[in-house]
From TrEMBL:
Domain Enoyl reductase (ER): 11-304
MF GO annotations: oxidoreductase activity; zinc ion binding
Name of the protein in question: Zinc-binding dehydrogenase
CDD domains hit by this protein: MDR_like_2
Species whose genome carries this gene: Actinomadura litoris
Classification via InterPro entries: ADH-like_N, Chloroplast_QOR, ER, GroES-like_sf, NAD(P)-bd_dom_sf, Quin_OxRdtase/zeta-crystal_CS
Entries under Gene3D superfamilies matching the protein: Medium-chain alcohol dehydrogenases, catalytic domain (3.90.180.10), NAD(P)-binding Rossmann-like Domain (3.40.50.720)
Lineage: superkingdom: Bacteria
SUPFAM superfamilies in the cross-refs: GroES-like, NAD(P)-binding Rossmann-fold domains
Length: 308
């Protein structure tokens, strides 16, 4: 099969290569998926630079990519819940860096898979799993629900835009930080936008004079602003800043979970969750997608299309 690989750690795209690799084997509790779309996430190029070396074994050559949407080719013998032809999606992280999703085929554990919502296109579904599960897990940890006022840092990004929609679906009021050019976009998602940067805390306080009940930091480096706007007894969590733990907050990690992903699929099917796609790239242009992701100014998700 065709796949993108790298054969050594690199903090640029110099080791990326498009070529032929063996088709994946399908363990008994896994499913072979023909990849129709695979979301790009910052962890993909951070892992290529060796950022996960303390946590995960790496087996070179590595196929990057942890998001997938596609069609079941063959379920393993211990997977009665999926059948050939099913349209599915998954956060396909494994216990070692090796067999990712920037390829024509990938084998994924059945427990990590959910059926694709019919009203999401392949690119949207391919961009949903990791970012959507991250947003969901942060909001679960913060116990966000009816009556909460939630501040979402980096609300127009891939994770942030989904966090806004999930929080709104739970009945929360949402304030989201973003650049001015993305304020109308956030209003369309149901959030009150504020510009990030100097004076952020004051702008949030204008919208929530008594403070916010929860803060989801999806950018990092926002601790001072978070503490300045958090109401007494408020909760805060970050996906990028360990310093929050010194101030009563929590660092949240995401893990593959097909059942949780199915809840996001249900929101999408009910029209309460959409995925903004910023761009789609063929396998030959994974490096270009990585460059855009590294720049950090993309609204929504970047996606790889192996068929292009």
């Amino acid at each position: 099969m065709r796949a993108v690989t790298y054969d050594a750690y690199a903090d640029d795209n110099s080791r990326l290569k498009l070529g032929e690799v063996p088709d994946p084997r399908v363990p008994p509790s896994s499913v072979l998926i023909e990849v129709r779309a695979a979301g790009v996430n910052p962890v993909d190029w951070k892992a290529m630079a060796g950022g996960l070396d303390p946590l995960l074994d790496t087996v070179f050559p590595v196929i990057p990519g942890w998001d997938v949407a596609g069609v079941v080719v063959r379920p393993g013998p211990d997977v009665p819940e999926f059948a050939a032809g099913d349209e599915v999606m998954a956060y396909a992280r494994k216990d070692a860096l090796q067999a990712g999703t920037f390829a024509q085929y990938v084998a994924v554990q059945a427990a990590h898979i959910a059926l694709k919502p019919a009203n999401l296109g392949w690119e949207q579904a391919g961009g949903l799993p990791l970012a959507g599960l991250t947003a969901q897990r942060v909001l679960d940890h913060l116990d966000v629900g009816e009556g909460d006022t939630v501040l979402v840092h980096a609300a127009a990004g891939g994770v942030g835009s989904l966090a806004v929609q999930i929080a709104r679906a739970r009945g929360a009021r949402v304030i989201g930080t973003a650049s001015e050019k993305n304020h109308d976009y956030l209003r369309g998602l149901g959030a009150a936008p504020v510009a990030y940067g100097e004076g952020l805390a004051g702008r949030v306080r204008e919208l929530a004079p008594d403070g916010v009940s929860a803060v989801a930091d999806l950018a990092g480096g926002q601790l001072d602003a978070t503490l300045a706007v958090l109401a007494p007894g408020g909760r805060h969590a970050s996906i990028a800043d360990p310093a929050v733990e010194e101030h009563g907050g929590h660092v949240v990690w995401v893990r593959p979970d097909g059942a949780k992903l199915a809840l996001l699929a249900d929101l999408a099917e009910r029209g309460a969750l959409d995925v903004e796609v910023a761009g789609s790239f063929p396998l030959a242009e994974v490096g270009a997608a990585f460059d855009l992701s590294r720049a950090g100014h993309t609204r929504g998700k970047l996606v790889i299309d192996p068929s292009a």
